[in-house]
Write a structure and sequence with these properties.
Belongs to the short-chain dehydrogenases/reductases (SDR) family. The chain has 313 residues and is an alpha/beta fold. It contains 12 helices and 10 strands. α6 runs parallel beside α7 and α7 packs parallel to α9. Bound molecules: NADP nicotinamide-adenine-dinucleotide phosphate (NAP). NADP nicotinamide-adenine-dinucleotide phosphate binds next to α4, β5, α7 and α10.
């Protein structure tokens, strides 16, 4: 859709003629440069054909992605971005079906291709092995396809920001259950069943706090540091499968998770600490995920990529 709007060239399907570009049967000519006698031998299918061409330009066309924690915040932006690149997306969430359903229906309504549905909302707690398996099963069933891309975005943070000495065992366990065990379970399922045709991509989400090591984040950062190490080893273990595994580590991003429990002063300190003088927005993170998910991202493998506007270098 986006490409279709941007590409203002008209495309003409040649009827019965063999042209150098005949394998696609499509030739692009600016409308004002076509002499009348030539244009009469073309069947002008501008609208439909520009849609076909725009679809074929989409780097994730015909690919199926799961985005865990895709209903809100960074995951929401990643879902939007992957879909704009042509992917069909399973939007996973834990409890809040309203936002996930709304996003799915918006994406399905915006799409005019044959590929329906474009998006589905699937409830699953990523810390539960059975629910993770069902998430993958349902995604395959809904889209009638193997899965190509996993983006493991679901995560939580203890909004009390306790020192390690004051961290409750229950809070430590919950953080590790959802962030670390959840990533492990989703990565394990993906390693077993993502497509092995060169389009398989696993993208985990950590945090740039692994670099800055701020007090008050011990459980959260430890849970994410484990994801970074796990992702690097996974990339090596996936040798021979053509599946890549990378980790994206955002800095502060303006989402519910970031704002929860923080004072105005604390938030301002994060803004002041950024060379670009602002918080990240969810879409600032989605771009790199789209790149890693694409063919162009193939050679980036086993890496942790910090995306933070320069907050942590
Ligand atoms: N925001 C930041 O500053 C920042 C910085 C670095 C890294 N990150 C990481 O980026 C990821 C997304 O963060 P965010 O700020 O976008 O968070 P968010 O706005 O709070 O969104 C969290 C998402 O995760 C889902 N979720 C939570 N627990 C889940 C579970 N057990 N199973 C499945 N889904 C679950 C939520 O679904 P429900 O709505 O149903 O609960 C929601 O879709 C997290 O991994 C976070 O650690 C965030």
């Amino acid at each position: 859709m986006h490409f279709a709007i941007k590409i203002r060239t008209y495309f003409f399907l040649v009827r019965g003629l063999t042209l150098p570009y005949a394998y696609t049967n499509i030739v692009a000519i600016h409308p004002f440069s076509i002499p009348q006698h030539i244009s009469s031998s073309f069947t002008i299918l501008a609208a439909e054909t520009s849609m076909e061409v725009s679809q074929s330009l989409l780097p994730l066309k015909d690919r199926v992605a799961i985005v865990t924690g895709g209903s809100r915040g960074i995951g929401h932006a990643i879902v939007n971005h992957l879909q704009s690149l042509g992917a069909r997306v399973a939007i996973n969430y834990a409890s809040n079906s309203t936002q996930a359903d709304l996003l799915a229906s918006e994406l399905n309504a915006s799409c005019t291709t044959d590929h329906h549905p474009q998006a589905v909302a699937i409830k699953a707690d990523v810390s539960d092995p059975e629910q993770v398996k069902l998430l993958f099963d349902k995604t395959e069933q809904e889209f009638g396809s193997k899965i190509h891309i996993l983006v493991n975005c679901a995560g939580i943070m203890d909004q009390k920001y306790p020192t390690l000495a004051n961290t409750a065992v229950e809070d430590w366990d919950m953080t590790f259950n959802i962030n670390t065990k959840g990533s492990f379970l989703c990565c394990r399922e993906a390693a077993r069943r993502l497509t092995r045709d060169g389009r398989g991509r696993i993208i985990t989400i950590s945090t740039s706090l692994v670099g800055s090591l701020l007090p008050g984040y011990a459980a959260y950062v430890a849970s994410k540091a484990a994801i970074e190490s796990m992702t690097k080893i996974l990339a090596k273990e996936l040798k021979g499968t053509k599946i890549t595994a990378n980790c994206v580590a955002p800095g502060p991003v303006a989402t519910e998770l970031f704002f929860a429990g923080k004072t105005e002063e604390t938030i301002q300190r994060f803004v002041d600490g950024c060379p670009l003088g602002r918080l990240g927005e969810p879409k600032d993170i989605a771009g790199i995920v789209g790149f890693l998910a694409s063919d162009a991202g193939e050679w980036t493998n086993g890496q942790v990529i910090r995306v933070n506007g320069g907050v942590v270098v």
